[in-house]
Write a structure and sequence with these properties.
Blueprint (H helix, E strand, L loop, with lengths): L2 H25 L3 H39 L4 H11 L3 H20 L9 H28 L4 H17 L3 H14 L7 H29 L1
Helix pairs in contact: 2-4, 3-4, 4-5, 4-6, 5-6, 6-7, 6-8, 7-8
Length: about 220
Amino acid sequence: MKAEERKELKQNTLVATVEKVGHALKQGPSRRSVVVVGILLLLVLLYAVWQIATNISEGRNSKRNLELLTAGSPEDLKQLIDKQGDTIQGRAARLQLARQNLIDGLGEGDRDSGEDRRGILSDYKSGAELLRRAAESFEKLAKEYKATPVLVQECYYGAGQAREALGELDEAVRLYEEVGKASPKNDPGPLAEQAAKAAQRVKDRKAELDKIQQQLKKS
């Protein structure tokens, strides 16, 4: 093909392309273009809605966290639990209340020797009730925190302490052993070691109590 013929062919092709573009502009945007633009606008709208919802959620979480940090007594924690329900902060409040009940329950009954016996008995009863609440809360939270091993360990250990103090030794051993099961294989951590020692201590104590009971029966 000669150079003049090639030049003429290119010119004809260019003219045809320009005519097609002009024809398309006269007809307006294509259906495909409209769909693409519509999708883009929808995505922009969804992003804006998501951003607004995120900001609102963060604001609520900040308020809940502040309420949790300022809850200084069991009564405050109970009110927060009722208010927050099954939220992260509500669950954290339940965990904190269980810790407090365990501490108070283990400390109940420590009275001076000269105090009235009925008062001491009342303290032991209230302490036992606090320990029972702590155990039940810890056991429930252990299931709810299953995605966070360190909290699962704490819950089982706390429940084991409460059950041991209540004299429920078989259950205490089971809970202490659950701490080890919930621990990471490669790094059990110090709490798993403490729980193993506690389980063995309770087993030894139970064996000693059983021996005493058998001796009492014989006598």
